[in-house]
Amino acid sequence: MDLKLLFISTLLGIICCSRAQQEGNECIKANALSCGECIQVGAKCGWCTDTDFLKQGEPTSARCDELESLKKRGCSATKIENPHGSQRTLKNKPVTNRKKGADKLRPEDITQIQPQKLSLNLRSGEPQNIKLKFKRAEDYPIDLYYLMDLSYSMKDDLENVKNLGTSLMKEMSKITSDFRIGFGSFVEKTVMPYISTTPAKLLNPCTGDQNCTSPFSYKNVLKLTSNGQQFNSLVGQQQISGNLDSPEGGFDAIMQVAVCGDHIGWRNVTRLLVFSTDAGFHFAGDGKLGGIVLPNDGKCHLENNMYTMSHYYDYPSIAHLVQKLSENNIQTIFAVTEEFQPVYKELKNLIPKSAVGTLSANSSNVINLIVDAYNSLSSEVILENSKLPEGVTITYQSHCKNGIVNEGENGRRCSNISIGDEVSFNINITAQGCPKQGKSETIKIKPLGFTEEVEIVLNFICECECHKHGIKNSDLCHNGNGTFECGACRCNKGRVGRQCECRKDEVSTEDLDKNCRKDNGTDICSNNGECVCGTCECKKRENPEERYSGKFCECDNFNCDRSNNKLCGGHGRCECRVCICDANYTGSACDCSLDTSTCLASNKQICNGRGNCECGTCRCTDPKFQGPTCEICPTCPGVCTEHKECVQCRAFGTGEKKDTCERDCSYFNLIKVKDRDKLPQPVQAFPLMHCKERDANDCWFYYTYAVNNNTEKEVHVVETLECPAGPDIIPIVAGVVAGIVLIGLALLLIWKLLMIIHDRREFAKFEKEKMNAKWDTTENPIYKSPINKFSNPNYGRKAVAL
Asked: Which residues lie below 8 Å from residue 430, measured CB to CB, with a gap of 6+?
């Protein structure tokens, strides 16, 4: 069972080691033929530019290896190409420390994120870390556009919104001194089959005597303005319209508000869109009901402030809206009635930086709803980045208020931020390889709902520094068939070989293969390589420390003898399957030390003069002596006396050393046995001494002393003392015992005599009573016969005739 466990653990160790080597050997696996290819494999890889670095049989790709491996293989650190990434800050305007009531600043002069522009040089596999700082500026300008559903069900809401301008301006002045408000309305596409198509209904879609305006898709009523009275005036002129189905065409209106920035009047400030309705919404695909199949193009189509392409383009999809709202930094507040809260809460989850508020039946609470939603949206910052180039990854770590640190997707955000709070983000950007063109790329990172952004220019390190000094058509590359750079030839198209000496079409021919067979054998490159241009290029091993070499790849550095599971005993190197030992070591596995200092005894003699020093270990020639320096003699006279006191104190807690036992007597292993038969016998493989000693109470104890094969001292001791009885006690005990015995015999005789007398008296009494008996011995006087006689009175009479 133990052997099985040992085998399994060893096998698992080999597998784990093998996996670790494979995973960490990406440089070897890449088979890079140039320095540029090598450094794109990963940050661990380097390229040796030393022209004499490669051994015979090693391919050019062997120059690409892990840094430590290259150094071990003899490449000087100054000859290793290992470029590193870097970064520069191009624009670093500090965040604005502005207080309300201070001098008014233009929106473009307010900074909430720092730095604003960086340039990164990316080495493949090596992350570049940048730190962004965000601070909510006080008194930051706000643009708010109120987009309202003017279907008939919102009639009473319109009455309350007519006075919204001045009231909202007054409330928002508590938050910012620079506030603008605009207004737009929507109903539905006019071509939908559920809108009446009769001329009269198009002019007045409402029933009864209600006066309603014609249905429309979206109308921009008021461009963003700081004049609250103008808002009230224009909104007061609006009329309710109508349609027949419950969902409205609000998505068309949201799209136009997002993309028609010039018509709406958006500034580069906080942009809020309040979407007010008491119904659901149509989305992409619903236009087919009216014969509209073209998808929404996401462009502005306002003429005279009216959306003119509602009959031509379908409703936008939710994903399309998310994209456009994000691109234009618009934060959406859905002010909807209680009935449609669940629908719009689900929509909120799909639109970043959006909020949902419950609108009362007549919109009387709209101001409080807007203020609460704004505070909720502005208290959270979420970073997003533009599309990343192929092979580039980005990770975020946020450092928020109260020491809270988030990673992963939560690393993009910080919550509960108040005005004036500062938070930071650590961002790692990593490239894997180089883009196809190798050109610079630009990405942008910005907080959602804010117009500010960080621009990052990505430059990719695709070539080594030594590439700049390459010699084209160099004579070192077989008559100019390649560029000599970074210590090796980079062959021209159609040429191969270490010196580009062959054309691709002549790489493998019978004549060239002959040069790769050792001693005219059948194996090409000893089955450890490939024949390229008549020269062996040896295979690479999974373990970068292991290599084939030689003209025919007949050598390797991993098939030498081992000792203690170490190649060449850890005291030499393996060259062509033979151990080359370090100084003071010899043997096929370099496991024999020539140092004799470990064999010196205390008398400065080699092995105490009683043995030979072999490979740093004493081999004792005198069978009586043993130990690492042949100084221990378990069977020599005086051994028992020497160890008596320590055995006595360790085994029985008595003797002269009982107070210093732990200090003086811990040099041997003590094993207790029950009796003398359990003591070890001298037939063991190592010398053993039997001892019998007496303590101060004249008690004997028995033990054995030996030094085992591991040079450990062992003492086996019988656990009970053997003590003789005292001389004065014996006569007393004997007398007592004799007295007890005599008394017992006397009592026994007396008892026997009394029993005899008693028996005789009883017998005499019996005989006397027998003689005095008065009844006849032939008949029992109390005897009574069991027979009774009876007579029949009619016996002998004649019978009467009937």
From this structure: 122, 125, 126, 127, 128, 392, 393, 394, 395
Tokens of 447: 């907080």
The pLDDT, as a whole number, for residue 293 is: 87
Both structure tokens of 70: 């290259």
CB within 8 Å of 794: residues ≥ 6 apart: none
Residue 362 region by backbone torsions, left for phi larger than 0, else alpha for psi between -120 and 50, else beta: alpha
Tokens 């194996």 belong to: 523
What does each C-alpha distance from 67 to 57, 72, 83, 198, 571 come to in angstroms? 21, 9, 12, 82, 23
Q: Are 165 and 181 in contact (CB under 8 A)?
A: yes
Residues 136 and 377: beta-carbon distance below 8 Å: no
Cβ(450)–Cβ(270) below 8 Å: yes
Distance CA 497, CA 475 (A): 14
Q: Which of 421, 282, 275 is nearest to 354 (CA)?
A: 275
Which residue stretches of 548-638 are H helix?
A: none
In tens, the pLDDT along 212-245 reads 778 888 999 999 999 988 988 888 888 888 665 5
Q: Long-range contacts for 384-389 (Cβ within 8 Å, ≥24 apart)?
A: 384/326, 384/352, 384/412, 384/445, 384/446, 384/447, 384/448, 385/443, 385/444, 385/445, 386/443, 386/444, 386/445, 387/443, 388/443, 389/435, 389/441, 389/443, 389/458
Dist CA 410 CA 395 (whole Å): 10
Alpha carbon distance 342, 360 (integer Å): 15
User: Whole-structure pTM over 0.70, yes or no?
Assistant: no
Instruction: Tell me the C-alpha distance between 535 and 518, whole Å.
Output: 12
In angstroms, what CA-CA distances link 592 with 244, 570, 589?
A: 101, 11, 8
- Residues of 567-599 as b/e, b for ≥16 C-beta within 10 angstroms? bbbebbebeeeebebeeebbbebbbbbeeeeeb
- Cβ neighbors of 94 (< 8 A, separation 6 or more) are 111, 114
| Helix orientation angle between 318-327 and 341-350, rounded to the nearest 10 degrees | 60
